[in-house]
Amino acid sequence: MRRVALVLLALALPAAAQDLASGFASPPPSARPQVWWHWLNGNVTPAGITADLEAFRRVGLGGGTIANIPYANVGPAPFNSVAWHAAVKHAAAEARRLGLELGFFNCEGWSSSGGPWVKPVDAMQMLVWSQRRVAGPAPVTVPSQPLTRLGTYRDALLLAFPTPSDERLPRARCGYVVRWS
Fold first, then answer.
1. Helix, strand, or coil (residue 103)
2. 102: closest CA among 139, 154, 168, 50?
3. Where are the domains of the chain?
4. CA proximity to 173, closest of 130, 138, 122, 127
5. Is the peptide bond before 137 cis (omega within 30 degrees of 0)?
C-alpha cells in the first residue's frame, strides 16, 4: 500500500510542477497584479482611458482602481462632474471589453483617509529623524525639530547612546542623539 502511494505521488509531482510553472508564466486573471490608477483632478479623456486600459491588458495586469487625486490643475472631467461620470462609465465599459477588473475610491483624495477636508494634524504622517554627535558628560541642547510638513510635528522618540569605540575620537567621550518624530 505504501509503495502504491509513493508511485502515485511520483506520477502526480511532474503534473503539479507543470501546472505551477504554466500558472506562473500565464497567471489566471484572479492572480494578476492590479494598479492604483491615478486620475489627477479630472485630467482624463476617453482616448486616454482606452489607451491606459489597453496598456494594462498588454503588460499582463488584471485591472486597476481609479484614484481621484485633486492635487493638479483641473482637467476636462473634474471629480463628480457629468464629464467625470461619463469617464467612469467609459472606463467600466472598456475594462469589461478587455476582461479587466475595475474599482474606484469612494471619494476624492485618498479613499476617505485624506483630502482637502482632512486637517493636517489628522492626516497621514511621516516619520522623520535627525542625528547629532555630542561630547559629554555635559548638558546637551537638541535642535528644536526635524523636517515638518504643513506645520504638524510631535516627538515620537529621543534615543541617546554612546559612540561605538571604533568611531570615538581620542581622549573624548562622545555619543549620538537620534530623534524620531
1. strand
2. 50
3. 31-114, 129-180
4. 138
5. yes
- Quick one: pLDDT band at residue 15, thresholds 50, 70, 90? low
- Report how far residue 3's alpha carbon sits from residue 12's, in angstroms, rounded to the nearest whole number: 14
CA distances from 5 to 8, 100, 132, 170 (A): 5, 42, 66, 71
Looking at per-residue pLDDT, the higher value among 77 and 165 belongs to: 77
What integer is the mean pLDDT of 124-136?
Answer: 76
Please report, as a single letter, which amino acid is at residue 4: V
The answer to whether 133 and 148 are in contact (CB under 8 A) is no
Answer whether 76's CB lies under 8 Å from 48's CB.
Answer: no
What are the pLDDT digits (tens) for 117-128? 777 777 777 777
Q: Are 162 and 175 in contact (CB under 8 A)?
A: yes
Name which of 144, 143, 148, 123 is nearest 132 in CA terms.
143
**In degrees rounded to 5, what are phi and psi of residue 59?**
-90, 5
How many CB atoms neighbour CB 87 within 10 A?
A: 22
Identify the pLDDT of residue 85.
95
- What does the alpha-carbon distance between residue 70 and residue 74 come to, in Å, rounded to a whole number? 8
